[in-house]
Design brief:
Strand content: 5-15%
Largest sheet: 3 strands, antiparallel
Radius of gyration: 34 Å
Distance between the termini: 105 Å
Number of helices: 6
Shape: elongated
Strand order of the largest sheet: 1-3-2
Helix content: 40-55%
Length: 179
């Protein structure tokens, strides 16, 4: 029985799971965004975020620890050179998971996991906050002032009179003659 076991094993043995997460984390760091299943994305997030957090302090010790997880020199260099500069002021939450529907073959839930500071579309849309339009009730003071009716205004229940269009007879000399 697996009482209290909260680890999603993803149907794999430990060594296979660790190798898969290492490869996915390296791909995420290099490409800034990857498409995978929702279950794998949810397992990848707690795996990769502590590594990104370590990149804030560029030391030999931190580089070696991150390398033991990633096993990819290119990914470690990218993480400590570029990504650490962008996330320097962010206190956490370096990744975002976006659900994109089901996979055609087996109907598995698919998701995109991406680094938050690298999605240009969402970064541009964030500052433009639309002003909230509120609907307000009319106060009782305004109702009392508009209650006075003018003599030339029609009553509330009576239909408004529309001016009738006058028919103009054509002038005698302007008829069209057909030959």
């Amino acid at each position: 029985m697996r009482h209290g076991d909260k680890v999603n094993n993803l149907g794999r043995k430990k060594e296979h799971r660790q190798a898969m997460l290492s490869n996915m984390a390296a791909s995420l760091i290099i490409h800034k965004r990857i498409t995978t299943t929702l279950a794998k994305a949810k397992v990848l997030r707690p795996y990769v975020e502590p590594l990104i957090n370590r990149a804030k302090n560029d030391s030999t010790h931190n580089r070696r620890i991150v390398f033991t997880y990633l096993q990819d020199k290119k990914a470690v260099s990218e993480l400590f050179r570029e990504i650490s500069q962008k996330i320097a002021n962010r206190p956490g939450g370096y990744t975002r998971i976006l659900k994109i529907g089901q996979r055609a073959g087996d109907n598995a839930d698919m998701a995109i996991i991406e680094l938050v500071d690298y999605n240009i579309n969402m970064l541009e849309a964030a500052p433009e906050a639309k002003e909230k339009a509120t609907r307000r009730r009319r106060g009782t003071a305004k109702k009392k002032t508009t209650a006075v009716k003018h003599a030339d205004e029609p009553k509330a229940g009576a239909p408004a009179e529309t001016p009738k269009a006058e028919t103009v007879a054509p002038e005698a000399g302007t008829e069209n003659k057909q030959e």
